[in-house]
Structure formats: C-alpha cells, structure tokens
Amino acid sequence: DSQLQIPIDAAIARGDKFFVAIPHEDGTFETREIKVGSANDAIITIREGLEVGQKVILNHSEIKDRLNLPELKLTVPPPVEPVATKPDAAKTDTANVKPVIGNAAKKS
User: Fold this and answer.
1) Are 3 and 68 in contact (CB under 8 A)?
2) Domain range for 33
3) Which of 2, 64, 65, 79 has its CA 20 to 30 A from that of 29?
4) How many C-alpha atoms does 81 have within 13 Å on its Cβ side?
5) DSSP secondary structure of 28-94
6) Are 61 and 55 in contact (CB under 8 A)?
7) What's the rounded mean pLDDT across residues 90-99?
8) Residue 41: inside a domain, yes or no?
9) What is the tens place of the pLDDT at every residue in 13-59?
10) Alpha-carbon 103 to chain mean position
C-alpha cells in the first residue's frame, strides 16, 4: 500500500491543521484541509484529503490573499503577578537547558 506524498512547500500550516490549494481549470482554486503523516525537509505524507493525480499549488505567494484559511485564534495568557525573589536568586536557581531539534510539523 503506497503512501501519497507531496512537496512540503505545498502544505500550508495553520495552527495544528494543514491545508493545500487545489487549482481548477477555470483559474480558480479550492483550499482543502488535509491530514498529514510523517515529513522531512522536502516531502510530507498525506493520510487524508487528497487523491492520486490531483494537482496542488506550490507557490502560495501569488494567491495568499485569496486563500480561504481559518483565522488563527491567538490566546493571550492572563497577566501574572510578579513573584518576589531573593536578590541572589539568579545565582542560586538553575535549570538544565536542552536544545530542541527539528519541529513538531516534521516528525518522522
């Protein structure tokens, strides 16, 4: 059972969802949500939303104003009251910092 794959540049990430723009013969296009699987730097696997042989738009810059994508709802956390600390707290409190490798959209 082969998996459907498209160039990663064709997928449009919006929050935790992904979309593609599918061109029509009359010059219009359809924005469609897709379900994705694994990805690398060049290719993303499509689990649902596209069929073999469908075309997708790679360069979104010319149509970005016409893409019918859901608005991102950014939530702002409530203000936090400052916590009093000891003057030397920065010297005594430590945390281990670990690098983050890759990004969540490119899990393999």
Assistant:
1) no
2) 1-70
3) 2
4) 2
5) -EEEEEEEEEEE-SSEEEEEES--TT----S--TTTGGG---PPP-PPPPPP-PPPP--TTHHHH--
6) no
7) 52
8) yes
9) 888 899 999 988 998 889 999 999 999 999 999 999 999 999 999 88
10) 9
